[in-house]
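Dear all,

This email documents one entry for the complex benchmark we are building for the journal club exercise. For each entry we list the sequence lines for every component of the assembly. Then comes the predicted three-dimensional structure of the complex as a token string, followed by one or two observations. Please use this as the template for your own entries, and keep the labels exactly as they appear.
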Amino acid sequence: MTRSKTPEDTRRRILETAERMFAEHGVFSVSNRQISDEAGLGNNTAVSYHFGSKADLVRAIYLSHREPTELLREKLLDRCAGSTDLRDWLTCLVRPFTDHLTSLGANSWYARFTAQLMTEPKLRELGLVEVGQTALQRTVSDSLHRCLPDLPPAVRAERDEMARTLIVHVCARREPGATDDSAALWNATAVGLVDALAGLYEAPATPRD
Amino acid sequence: MTRSKTPEDTRRRILETAERMFAEHGVFSVSNRQISDEAGLGNNTAVSYHFGSKADLVRAIYLSHREPTELLREKLLDRCAGSTDLRDWLTCLVRPFTDHLTSLGANSWYARFTAQLMTEPKLRELGLVEVGQTALQRTVSDSLHRCLPDLPPAVRAERDEMARTLIVHVCARREPGATDDSAALWNATAVGLVDALAGLYEAPATPRD
């Protein structure tokens, strides 16, 4: 007799399966039917029943990671309150992502999923822009900007985009190597990213017209 | 009567169509049959007849951009010979890509194609590693490293990866905006990248065990 499943079990199963398949094959290569099959659900309409459209499913995967990431960010923010050291705020930018990846261990697909989301031309807005920045993310962003009073706002915005791109894509490339000692991998990755981003943000900007 | 086509016309048409479709939908979402249809070729086997496997096709697209990019790199290298200024070598790293994108004008898909190639976990090796660095790329890389004698080799390798990631993904995000004045867009992008990468490479590295 198979163990009876609650709707919550089924939802979680769909989220995990879809995340892995999207990360591996790209969001548009995978149908809801393939996700249902791979998740071992008899019912082909399970995905749309539980999540609605593919956009809703993508957003649900993203949101399932947001709460644990926000908790990590909150703790780091408590430690950095009032700091005017750029590296502290870069730590608040990088570590919630890498520490969350550490907590996911060897079976994480989240970095690759996020990278796919940033690369898919049609999905970028859908997945992240609608969801918006959280209040804590805004605090990190504002505090980081206060450490860079001389950087023209347009250059600052450009470097914010570079920082996000770098964090997500570097982690996505490392993620397949997160096997036995994922904590060491993600710690080294975070150290390398904070060092590099400190240089990236502090670099003088060539004047432009 | 339709204009008769040489095999060279057909090959070029397949390359352009496949590049755009791969850039838009991801390499694994697009079948050879869909490429043949979209390219308006009657024959469904045209792609495999002209290129072989999908891996061969991906490599052929990449190689079709390599010669013009190498010519741009060669010119820049002539101007920088003997320089010990990091920014000169970063210019040789960034500008061949952005200047080639400028020459492609408003209809370029090459940055997004390359970004897909870097993001697809299965394609990364296949597309670029097998092809290898060119002699000119190696010269740029070696000269750049000589400007950073104090950076531990492992950190230097990490930053090389970050630089490649940043150049390709930043350009991929900007490429849809390459409309009327693509030269201005790519010039501003190159200036911003060289500034940011100078800081990224010169940032002190936190000692690691």
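Observations: The CA atoms of residues 89 and 143 of chain A lie 7 Å apart. The longest helix of chain A spans residues 54-80.
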